[in-house]
Amino acid sequence: MSKLVGRTLVSCAVCCAVLGGALATAANAACTYGVAEDAVKVEWTAFKFTEKTGVTGTFNTMTLAGPREAPSLTALAEGLSMKIDGTSIESNNPGRNATISQFFFQKFAPSPEITGKVESVDGDDSKGTLNIAITMNGTTRTVPFAYTISKDHAVTAKAAVDMMDFALQKPFDSIHQACEEQHTGEDGVSKTWTDLELTLSGTFRESCD
Predict the structure, then answer these.
(1) What is the bridge-based pairing of β-strands 89-90 and 62-65?
(2) What mean pLDDT is predicted for residues 46-51?
(3) How many domains does the chain fold into?
(4) How many of the other CB atoms lie within 10 Å of CB of 189?
(5) Where does the pLDDT of residue 21 fall: very low under 50, low under 70, confident under 90, or very high at 90 and above?
(6) Which is nearest to 78 in space by CA: 32, 131, 115, 140?
(7) Residue 107 above 70 pLDDT?
(8) Radius of gyration of the chain measured on its C-alpha atoms
(9) Cβ distance 144 to 130 under 8 Å?
(10) What is the pLDDT of residues 169-196, one digit of tens each?
(11) How far apart are alpha carbons 101 and 88 in whole angstroms?
C-alpha cells in the first residue's frame, strides 16, 4: 500500500512539474505582430438608382506608414496611417475610372489626396472598433470602423460615411451631373446617393518565441 501511495505521489509531482513548465513557457512567450504595405486594401462602395445599386472599387495608389511590427495588435493598429491618391480610383471600368477621377476627386480642395490615421482601438484580438481620422477635401472626421479578426489573421473593418460630412457638395453635384444618364433607373429618376461604404482588409503575421 505504501509503495502504491509513493508511486502516486511521484506521478503527481512529475505531472505538476511538466504542467508548471508548460505554463511558464507560455507565459514567457513573446509575440510580435507585423503587417506589409501590400497586405492592406481599401475598398469603397457608392450607390446609384432609386433602388440603391452598389458600385464597388478600390484605389491603385496607396501608401501605408507606421510601425511594421509591434508587441500587440492594438499597438500595431494605433500607429498606422495611410495616404490615398483619389485619382487612382479603380472600378474595373476605364471609362468610369476617368469620369470619377475628373468629375469627383479632381474637384477636391486643396488636393484629391485622402488620408486616414488610426486614433484608437476599442476591442481585442477578435473584434472591436477602429477609430480612424479620415481627411479629404480639407475636412477631417473620425469614423468608427467595426472590425473582426479571423483565425487565419485576416482583418476586415467596415464603416459608412456620408459625402456631406466632408463638405463634398460641389464634387457630388459635379459627378451627379456627369453621370446623370448612367444613374437613371427604370423609374426614370436619376439618383446618386451621398452615402458610401468603406472596407479595410488585410492580413498580419504573428511571430512567437
Answers:
(1) unpaired
(2) 98
(3) 1
(4) 10
(5) very low
(6) 131
(7) yes
(8) 25
(9) yes
(10) 999 999 999 999 999 999 999 999 999 9
(11) 7
CATH number, position 142: 2.40.128.110
Task: Report which DSSP code applies to 88.
Answer: G
Confidence of residue 31 (pLDDT cuts 50, 70, 90): confident
9: containing domain: 2-208
Region of 188 please: left (phi>0), alpha (psi -120 to 50) or beta.
left
Cell triple for 108? 477636391
End-to-end CA distance of the chain, in Å?
Answer: 45
Quick one: which of 114, 83, 86 has its CA closest to 102?
A: 86
The span from the CA of 109 to the CA of 169, in Å, is: 12
CA–CA separation, 77 and 72 (whole Å): 9
Q: What is the pLDDT of residue 76?
A: 87
Q: State residue 152's pLDDT score.
A: 86
pTM of the model as a whole? 0.83
Length of the chain: 209
Please tell me whether residue 27 adopts helix, strand or coil conformation.
helix
* Backbone φ, ψ for residue 72 (5° rounding): -150, 160
DSSP assignment, residue 189?
-
The owner of cell 480612424 is 132
Q: Given this model, what pLDDT does residue 24 score? A: 37
